[in-house]
Write a structure and sequence with these properties.
- This protein is mostly helical and 150 residues long.
- Helix 1 (8-42) packs antiparallel against helix 3 (60-80), helix 3 crosses helix 4 and helix 4 (84-105) packs antiparallel against helix 5.
- It has a domain at 7-84 and 124-149.
- It is built from six helices and no strands.
- The termini are far apart.
- It has helices at 8-42, 47-54, 60-80, 84-105, 110-124, 132-149.
Length: 150
């Protein structure tokens, strides 16, 4: 690979982060966070609380809110590449529960397992050059170098 081509792995990571995060927000996170908000602020019924209680979690409302925040905020952080490792850990924890639930009930673990793998991947690797984490890291390294040379 030539020096000119060296940006493609980072572009691939960017596209992967944005696509996975956008799908997770659109298909899962947005509905949960909007319903959770309506439940907390307006007292509206939220069926997800009943689901969380049915799989055995105590304090079902609390854990339902945790899952909603995890899927929504974790996806936003993944898309931006900002605090990527922490957002990915949030997503991974939520997806472990989803994989467990589907494995015990209907066997349809594919999508939850895929999101779990995405979360695990970005827990352990850099989000790439095109991320807020990388931008902040480069700025702090430049600042540190300027301080050390002064």
């Amino acid at each position: 690979m030539t020096e000119k081509d060296s940006r493609w792995p980072d572009i691939s990571l960017l596209l992967f982060r944005v696509a996975a995060g956008a799908m997770l927000i659109y298909f899962h996170g947005w509905g949960k966070i909007a319903s959770g908000y309506a439940n907390v602020i307006h007292g509206e019924e939220w069926g997800f609380i009943g689901f969380v209680a049915s799989i055995g979690f105590p304090a079902a409302r609390f854990f339902a809110l945790c899952a909603a925040i995890s899927e929504f905020l974790g996806s936003l952080l993944l898309i931006a590449g900002f605090f990527t490792r922490y957002g990915s850990m949030m997503l991974s924890a939520t997806m472990v529960v989803a994989v467990y639930y589907h494995a015990r009930n209907d066997g349809r673990i594919e999508l939850a397992a895929l999101y779990l793998l995405v979360g695990m991947l970005f827990t352990f690797i850099s989000p790439g050059r095109y991320s807020v984490d990388e931008w902040i890291g480069n700025r702090s390294k430049a600042t540190e170098a300027a301080v050390l040379t002064a």
